[in-house]
């Protein structure tokens, strides 16, 4: 006896087959695995990037992981060349790479790098001993000895330039933060100027041992720096340090995740969707992901957005100017 399938069942089976085939076709050009360029092991970039890679790999059924690199500047070069699918960077090195001014490849415009999503901010802040009488940037005396953190760090790359723009003349010193904090306390430095996560242990330690001034940017200084550098306005909450009685107005540099612009649009759309729609999961990877939310997409004005990422933002009501989409 011949069995026949009801017409509705045939239609449903056909639809399921079509959907499965469509899904298969959509993923046909997806990479089978991917790597995320992070930075040195143990740092925020490594923890954040490796955790995010594992999350995306699980979510999309792929193989992926974070990889130790030299950090933001090298990540731009690795993503541009296609050696890595994804990477983490800050807006300063990104602007340099887009202008052909990367120290790793002078003259090479890295135009195969596209923005994905905002990560978190790295604030720039200035500290001096209260006994110095330095209470504002304009109080910093000519020839002041300023510690800018480790050589070639984001802090050392951008903070000296910002202070020069604001008319400060100084002697530049480098070193680890705890070492520079000790030098400040011993009178070997006049100021420490850092770009790092807050609270900075070196400053917290100084507060315990002596009186310090945590120096804000004036409104005019803030406007000048915002105009000249790829930074955003930031307020260090008064609760960060015992010295502060009110929020301290400074600037910060945003960190963004990026992708190779030639990655498939559907793939990058799904990566962006998973990241932007699961902030609880992102915060469980690293607490700094509290700001890994679509509202902060406005803080990238440097890298073009990948069309796949831009599509997710557009569908969810976050407008990106056409000039900022690859």
Give me the CATH architecture of the largest domain, please.
Answer: 3-Layer(aba) Sandwich
The radius of gyration is 24 Å
Largest sheet: 10 strands, mixed
- The share of residues in helices is 25-40%
What's the assembly state of these chains? single chain
What fraction strand?
15-25%
Low-confidence stretches: 1-25
Description:
With 326 residues, this protein is an alpha/beta fold. The chain folds into two domains: 33-120 and 255-324, D-Maltodextrin-Binding Protein, domain 2, CATH 3.40.190; 122-253, Periplasmic binding protein-like II (D-Maltodextrin-Binding Protein, domain 2, 3-Layer(aba) Sandwich), CATH 3.40.190.10. It has helices at 7-26, 44-60, 72-81, 91-98, 154-165, 177-185, 201-209, 219-228, 265-276, 279-285, 307-315, and strands at 33-37, 63-67, 86-90, 113-129, 144-147, 170-173, 191-195, 212-215, 232-236, 248-260. Strands 1, 2, 3, 4, 5, 6, 7, 8, 9 and 10 form a ten-stranded mixed β-sheet that branches. The chain is elongated and about 65 Å long. 40% of the residues are buried. The model is unreliable at 1-25 (pLDDT under 50).
């Amino acid at each position: 006896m011949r069995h026949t399938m009801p017409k509705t069942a045939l239609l449903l089976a056909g639809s399921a087959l079509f959907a499965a085939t469509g899904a298969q076709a959509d993923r046909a050009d997806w990479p089978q695995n991917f790597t995320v360029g992070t930075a040195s092991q143990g740092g925020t970039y490594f923890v954040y990037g490796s955790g995010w890679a594992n999350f995306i790999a699980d979510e999309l059924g792929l193989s992926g992981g974070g990889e130790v690199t030299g950090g933001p500047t090298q990540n731009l070069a690795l993503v541009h060349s296609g050696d890595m699918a994804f990477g983490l960077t800050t807006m300063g090195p990104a602007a340099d790479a887009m202008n052909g001014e990367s120290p790793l490849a002078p003259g090479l415009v890295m135009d195969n790098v596209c923005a994905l999503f905002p990560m978190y901010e790295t604030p720039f802040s200035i500290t001096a001993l209260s006994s110095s009488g330095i209470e504002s940037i304009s109080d910093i005396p000519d020839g002041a000895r300023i510690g800018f953190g480790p050589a070639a760090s984001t802090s050392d790359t951008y903070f000296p330039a910002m202070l020069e723009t604001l008319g400060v003349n100084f002697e530049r010193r480098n070193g680890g933060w705890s070492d520079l904090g000790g030098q400040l306390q011993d009178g070997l430095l006049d100021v420490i100027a850092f770009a790092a996560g807050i609270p900075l242990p070196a400053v917290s330690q100084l507060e315990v041992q002596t009186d310090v001034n945590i120096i804000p940017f004036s409104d005019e200084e803030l406007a000048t720096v915002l105009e000249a550098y790829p930074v955003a306005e930031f307020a260090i909450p008064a609760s960060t340090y015992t010295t502060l009685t009110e929020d301290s107005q400074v600037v910060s540099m945003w960190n963004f995740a990026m992708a190779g612009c030639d990655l498939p649009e559907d793939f990058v759309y799904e990566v962006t969707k998973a990241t932007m729609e699961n902030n609880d999961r992102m915060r469980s990877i690293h607490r700094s992901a509290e700001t890994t939310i679509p509202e902060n997409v406005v803080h990238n004005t440097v890298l073009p957005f990948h069309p796949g990422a831009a599509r997710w933002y557009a569908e969810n009501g976050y407008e990106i100017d056409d000039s900022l989409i690859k």
